[in-house]
Amino acid sequence: MKPVEVKADVYWVGAVDWNIRDFHGYSTYKGTTYNAYLLKDEKIVLFDTVKKGFLSDLLHRIRNLGIEPEDIDYLVVNHVEPDHSGSLPEVIERIRPEKIFCSPMGEKAIQAHYHPGEAWPLTVVKSGETVSLGQRSITFLETRMLHWPDSMFSYIPEEKLLISSDAFGHHWATSERFDDQVDTAELMAHCAKYYANILLLYSPLVQKLLQKVAEMGLEIDTIAPDHGVIWRQDPGRILAAYDRWSRQETTNKAVVVYDTMWHSTEAMAKAVADGLVDGGMSVQLMSLKSCHRSDVITELLEASVLAVGSPTLNNGMLPTIADFLCYLKGLKPKNKVAAAFGSYGWSGEAVKQMTQALKDMKLEVLEGVRHQYVPDHEALAACRRLGQELAAQAGG
Ligand code: FEO
């Protein structure tokens, strides 16, 4: 793949990872990209690098521009997570840059990851600092905890270009590089998954950042993230989506997530789902035997109801459900009505434990339903009523 011109003298020189299927516990069924950008001015700048193992992709694309690595003057490290900095030591060895720009927290993260001491020409920049490149300039904007302490944006005002690190990105390996070249519905689904699994817990900070960018009056017509396609046709679409997602606005959608041993809890899950449909809700029924936790979280992003089902095993809930609830708690979901349900044999602690876990997340929790062994018509009717109550409480 050739380098791709993003703007005059600004090129995408990143790598496409077609085969990755697990990104630290996030399922990437369609791979991802590690985007890096090269800007040619009186100074030549490389923004971010690629994951370890993809260095030759990066160097090949740079050389296709007629530029040798040692021609590059400046390196910008917007984010130190290894999917963007894994090849940093080898890149620095080849480029021998005059300066490496990073945020104050970026310097600490670089030292903690690669231990260069004084050997690398790290140049710390703070929010609002500008560096001239000749005809163009870079203004840096720290975006702490979006999603690492070191994260920052690089804004090129002369090109109305925002290089946004992980923000506004998505895991999707494509041969296309721009939003107008891909299917919009699929693009937004990948973006929702990224937001739900990576950024949801930082939603209050996303709101502050969007307000800050609006106050700064930055003119932006292109957003170039570090993963996925570049927003050149409709950057407003992803900004509006981030505004909506970070407010944790919900729709009349419900997610019923469960696991089951002998299909009793599964039968209860279906009955709860029927009750939610009775109440006018759109329902996703998701077995953790079939669905990855990161896909369940994606469906939950805009849902107003969560029902969780598990039988009791060894005086507790099934490990798959414990895993899911632990993951969910970390993401700090809001604005959801929730309840638990499940079958049991003799002790039956799972529903109580799941209910407490949902309360610990400060969700609005209704009393759950549990049933000994195989649910009969009455038990399924109780589950259906639970679904109806959840829908009514959510205003569905
Ligand atoms: Fe894509 Fe936070 O690294």
Q: What attributes does this structure have?
A:
single chain, 396 residues, alpha/beta, Metallo-beta-lactamase, Chain A, Rossmann fold, 7-stranded mixed beta sheet, 6-stranded parallel beta sheet, 12 helices, 35% helix, binds MU-OXO-diiron
| Structural class assignment | alpha/beta
Read across the widest sheet, the strand sequence of neighbours is 1-2-7-8-9-10-11
How many structurally independent domains?
A: 2
The CATH superfamily label of the largest domain reads Ribonuclease Z/Hydroxyacylglutathione hydrolase-like
Shape designation? elongated
**Architecture of the largest domain, according to CATH?**
4-Layer Sandwich
The average pLDDT score comes to 97
Q: Just give the CATH class of the largest domain.
A: Alpha Beta
Number of helices: 12
Compute the separation of the termini in Å: 48 Å
Task: Point out poorly predicted stretches.
Answer: none
Which ligands accompany this protein? MU-OXO-diiron
Counting DSSP E segments of at least 2 residues, the number of strands comes to 22
Strand content: 15-25%
Give Rg in angstroms: 24 Å
